[in-house]
Amino acid sequence: MAFVARSGDLPAGCLAFDPFGEGTVELHRFFVDASFRGQGIGRALMGTVLAEIDKGPARTVLIHTTFYMESAITVYEAFGFRPCAPFRDTPPHVRHTDV
Predict the structure, then answer these.
(1) What is the pLDDT of residues 23-39, one digit of tens each?
(2) What CA–CA distance (Å, rounded) separates 46 from 53?
(3) Helices marked H in 1-99
């Protein structure tokens, strides 16, 4: 399921989630356009998506990111996300960037 944030008629950001095993979903495609950053759009998207997930049976939410996505990690941490063991296989040449 995908969510798109708008500012007027313009798309400002997006966030999606999909099932990832029993009782688990994975967030992905989290993006806020550079011209809209710093306006709370990422936090609004995260709040909306987590509220939608909460309506269903999933009780575990996973996010794969990289250490250089500092703004996204800040949003994730603000919503209580913490690092976990790797849950997907990534190519060896980029594995060192996984969070």
Answers:
(1) 999 999 999 999 999 99
(2) 10
(3) 41-54, 70-78
Q: Is the pTM of this model over 0.90?
A: no
Q: What is the CATH number of the domain that holds 70?
A: 3.40.630.30
Number of domains the chain contains: 1
Report how far apart, in Å, the C-alpha atoms of 97 and of each of 13, 38, 71 are: 24, 24, 15
In the structure encoding, which two tokens stand for residue 25, read together? 């979903």
By residue range, what is the domain housing residue 54? 2-97
- Residues in the chain where the model's pLDDT stays below 50: none
d(CA 26, CA 57): 13
Q: Tell the burial category of 25 from Cβ atoms under 10 Å away from its Cβ (0-12, 13-18, 19+).
A: buried
CA distance 77 to 40: 15
* Cα distance between residue 91 and residue 87, in whole Å: 13
